[in-house]
Write a sequence for this structure.
C-alpha cells in the first residue's frame, strides 16, 4: 500500500511538471502600442512627424500597414522609418495647418516570435505651419439669384486648396448631379447642375471641413423665361431669342400658317433668318408659331406658345415710264437712273411742263394714290437752288394706272442765258422710294 502511494505521488509530480513545461510555451503578455505625442490634439511639426512605440519587436511591414493618417476623408501619405521598436512617420506632402488629422492603428501584427496581436487605437493631432490655410473668399452670384437653370455657382478661395477635400465636403440640398470645373491653380471652382437647377426651391450649398460654410441660392424659371421676337423685312423674317438656343430645337418648334416651305439660317447662337423658298403670297395673313416648351441651352424655357402674325401687301405696280410735254417739245423717259439728265427746250422762259406718269398696273389703294400725289415735286437746283415745289395734277385715268400733272416753269430773271437744272421726284410704290429725274432747261438767248 505505501509503495502504491509513493508511485501515485510520483506520477502526479511528473504530470504537474509536464503541465508547467507545456504552460511555459505560451506568453500571455499583450503587445503595448502608444503614440508620441500622447496628448490628444497635440501640435506636430511636419518635419519631425509623430512616433508609434511597440513594446516588443514586430513585423515592420505589417506594422506600417496598420497605421493610417486621414484628413477630410482622405489618407495622408507618410514616409516610414524605424529605430528599434519605434516607427516614425513623416508626411510626404505638406499637411494642411489647422485641420484635425486622425491617426488610426487597426489590425493584426505578428511579433518576432510569429505570434499575432490585435491592435486598435486612435489619436488626433494637428500639424503646425507658418502658412495660413486657404479659406473661401467669395461666392457668385453674390445676390444668390440664378439667372437660368444652367447658371454657374462660382466659389473662389484665398489660395490653392485641396480639390479632393473640397469635393468630398461638398453637399447640395436638394440633391443635384453637378459638374465641377477647377482653374489651373486650384483657387476657383465652378459648379453647374447637369440637368439644371430645380426651379422655385431654395438650394443650400454646404462646403468645408471641419468648418462648414453654407450658401443659399434660388432659381425661379418663371422669373427668367425664354422669350422670342420677330423683325420682318420684306419676305425675310429675323427671329431672335433672349438666350442661346439649339438650331434643331428651334426648327422642331417652328411652324407657319398657311404652310410655306421655309429656308432656315442661323446667324448667331440667338438669332435666325427665315424666308420662303420662293416668296410669300400677296394679300395674305401669315402666322409664325413657336411651341411652348422650347428650351434654351441654359435651361430657360418658353412658357407660352409664341405667335407672330403679318399681312403681305398686294402686288405693287412699278413705275413704267414718264411722258414729258411742253409747248414746243416732247420727251419720253424710260430710264430712271439718277445719273442721267434729260434736256427740256421750250420756246420761251415761261412755259407749262406736263408730265404723264404711267405705272405697270392699277394703283388700287387710296393710300398709295395719295402717297404718290404727295411725293410729286420739282426743285430747282441751279442757278440759285430753290425749295421743292409740289406739282399740280389733273388726276388719275379711269384705270388708275396713269397720273397726269403739270407745272408752270419760269426761268429766273437775269439768267436767260444760263441753263436751269431741275430735279423731278416721282414715287415708285414697290419700295416706297422716290426716283429723281434730272431735267436741264436750256438757256434762252
Amino acid at each position: 500500500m505505501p509503495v502504491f502511494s509513493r508511485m501515485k505521488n510520483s506520477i502526479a509530480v511528473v504530470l504537474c511538471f509536464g503541465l508547467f513545461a507545456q504552460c511555459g510555451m505560451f506568453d500571455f503578455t499583450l503587445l503595448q502600442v502608444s503614440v508620441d505625442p500622447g496628448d490628444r490634439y497635440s501640435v506636430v511639426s511636419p518635419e519631425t512627424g509623430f512616433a508609434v512605440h511597440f513594446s516588443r519587436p514586430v513585423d515592420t511591414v505589417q506594422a506600417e500597414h496598420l497605421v493610417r493618417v486621414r484628413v477630410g476623408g482622405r489618407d495622408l501619405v507618410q514616409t516610414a522609418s524605424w529605430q528599434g521598436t519605434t516607427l516614425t512617420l513623416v508626411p510626404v506632402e505638406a499637411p494642411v495647418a489647422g485641420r484635425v488629422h486622425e491617426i488610426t492603428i487597426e489590425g493584426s501584427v505578428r511579433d518576432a516570435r510569429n505570434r499575432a496581436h490585435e491592435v486598435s487605437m486612435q489619436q488626433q493631432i494637428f500639424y503646425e505651419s507658418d502658412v495660413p490655410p486657404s479659406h473661401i473668399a467669395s461666392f457668385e452670384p453674390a445676390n444668390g439669384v440664378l439667372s437660368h437653370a444652367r447658371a454657374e455657382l462660382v466659389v473662389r478661395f484665398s489660395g490653392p486648396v485641396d480639390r479632393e477635400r473640397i469635393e468630398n465636403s461638398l453637399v447640395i440640398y436638394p440633391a443635384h448631379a453637378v459638374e465641377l470645373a477647377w482653374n489651373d491653380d486650384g483657387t476657383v471652382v465652378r459648379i453647374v447642375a447637369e440637368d439644371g437647377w430645380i426651379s422655385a426651391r431654395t438650394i443650400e450649398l454646404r462646403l468645408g471641413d471641419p468648418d462648414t460654410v453654407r450658401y443659399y441660392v434660388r432659381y425661379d424659371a418663371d422669373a427668367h423665361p425664354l422669350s422670342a421676337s420677330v423683325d420682318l423685312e420684306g419676305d425675310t423674317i429675323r427671329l431672335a431669342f433672349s438666350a442661346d438656343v439649339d438650331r434643331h430645337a428651334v426648327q422642331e418648334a417652328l411652324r407657319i400658317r398657311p404652310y410655306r416651305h421655309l429656308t432656315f439660317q442661323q446667324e448667331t447662337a440667338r438669332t435666325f433668318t427665315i424666308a420662303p423658298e420662293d416668296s410669300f403670297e400677296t394679300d395674305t395673313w401669315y402666322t409664325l408659331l413657336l411651341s411652348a416648351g422650347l428650351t434654351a441651352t441654359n435651361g430657360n424655357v418658353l412658357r407660352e406658345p409664341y405667335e407672330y402674325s403679318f399681312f403681305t401687301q398686294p402686288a405693287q405696280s412699278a413705275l413704267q415710264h414718264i411722258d414729258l410735254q411742253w409747248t414746243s417739245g416732247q420727251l419720253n423717259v424710260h430710264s430712271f437712273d439718277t445719273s442721267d439728265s434729260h434736256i427740256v427746250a421750250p420756246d420761251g422762259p415761261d412755259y407749262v411742263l406736263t408730265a404723264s406718269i404711267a405705272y405697270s398696273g392699277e394703283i388700287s389703294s387710296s393710300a398709295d394714290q395719295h402717297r404718290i400725289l404727295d411725293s410729286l415735286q420739282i426743285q430747282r437746283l441751279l442757278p440759285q437752288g430753290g425749295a421743292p415745289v409740289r406739282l399740280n395734277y389733273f388726276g388719275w385715268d379711269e384705270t388708275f394706272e396713269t397720273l397726269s400733272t403739270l407745272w408752270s416753269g419760269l426761268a429766273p430773271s437775269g439768267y436767260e442765258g444760263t441753263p436751269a437744272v431741275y430735279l423731278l421726284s416721282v414715287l415708285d410704290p414697290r419700295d416706297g422710294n422716290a426716283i429723281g429725274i434730272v431735267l436741264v432747261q436750256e438757256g434762252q438767248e
Remarks:
- Confidence is low (pLDDT under 50) at residues 1-27.
- The chain has four domains: 33-127, 136-222, 228-311, 319-441.
- The chain has five helices and 34 strands.
